[in-house]
Specification:
By secondary structure, the protein is mainly alpha-helical. The chain folds into three domains: 193 residues, Growth Hormone, Chain: A, CATH 1.20.1250; 160 residues; 85 residues, Response regulator (Rossmann fold, 3-Layer(aba) Sandwich). 77% of the residues lie in helices and 0% in strands. It has 21 helices and no strands.
Amino acid sequence: MMGEGDGGKRNLSERNLSVLVFSLFFSWTLAFPFEGQILYSLASAFDLAPDQMVFGAIGMHFTGLLLCGFFIRTMRAAKFLLQGSIIFCILASGMFFFPPSLLWSAAILSSSILSGGCVAAWGYFLKSGTPKNERIKTVADGLIYSNILMIAINMTALHLSPYLGLGLSMLLLGVAFMFALRLPPDDRMSSFTSPEQEGSSESIAKPLAFLCLFIVVITINSGLMYHVLSPAYAHHEWLTSWYWAIPYIIALGIMRNLPRKTNRTYVLYVAIAMIGFSFIAFMSLDRSAASYLVVNTLMLGACGVYDLFWWSILGEMMSLDKNPAKVLGAGLAANVLGVLLGGLIGSAMTSASMQTPNSTLLALAVVCVTLVMLPPLNEHLTRLLKHHVFLTAISGLLPEWQNKVIDNLAVLGQLTERESEIAALLLKGKTYRMIAGELHISENTVKTHIKNIYSKYKVQSRTELVNVMLEQQSNVRL
């Protein structure tokens, strides 16, 4: 929950600012450099093949996402990057009012790498302005609003003029810059981070890497959709220009408002089934507008579920690392990599040398393989994240509450002074080696103490000890 009084209003204001900046900036990204209709419309107007620019822009976006966390390590630096990049992107977009030249390629590639960096840097404001159990709503709001704005830009570019669409996107960037000026310059408003989280980046490396693999597998389907499904319905230009993102937005809204106790894994399995049915419908139905509504609703609805599923996991993982740009950047880079791989596979399948039925069957085969992989990947990811429940359980408490809970826990188990110290470090996510180093004792001594601690509480793991700690947390609050 948000803080009370002025603190709650202040944090709510920061959350709203972060959503506005993200939505306005990301709508430009979706409508222009990242396979956007502005880019395609401008290329069509000059009879150019956009594939090289499109794949180059995706590659640069991937690079910006991946590298941002290594260079942006403070909120002040993140704000500076956002503001400077927005101005640069406005100027780079202006190059497309002139006839095609090498400046087009330079502008699209440079602005794409900066846009990737900006999205990753936004992680600082997502972490600072929203508590971890509410980040799914902040992310959903940002994705919903950015997609609504993207539809408006696309409609303008396709049905009025690509230059009007370009001008509208630049206007939104200007508004994003005005709001970015009001973002907090430092961590004074970051009330949702605790000191214990600062040393835990190593401990989330494995689940983060596995989550990235999970994201790549999921989003290969998105790339295939762009290059196999969408072109088949290109003759319904008016319908496809606005409806394709509607199921995605609706799915985000549904996921956003699910009760907190809902098992989202079941929803993920429903989305897996929707993907399968969408490709079956694509193969069995004609290419009418009604068929498009069926296929697109299933496909994009599933994509909305997928995206918010892994976005929300990334949002929670930010609480376990001092550099949210690195966590968010890695996850979104995996998403872009999946889209890029799916796009390359789709482009190969739809090349002139291959017949359409064969390409569709091959696309379906790739999708089936990814669908088979998702359940075991999700199960293993869930197990990895459960091992980190102790990190999120105590890190969400204020320092004074942490001390009270740990003190009560020590009294309950009649722990010795040394055992109390080790139990406190254990609950704060420290590894055996870290505990040994901090207390200047051997790892074997740490293991012996932990064995005694478990015995006194009649538990067999750190996770079970957390459950005892959570009971004590409730007693302290009462």
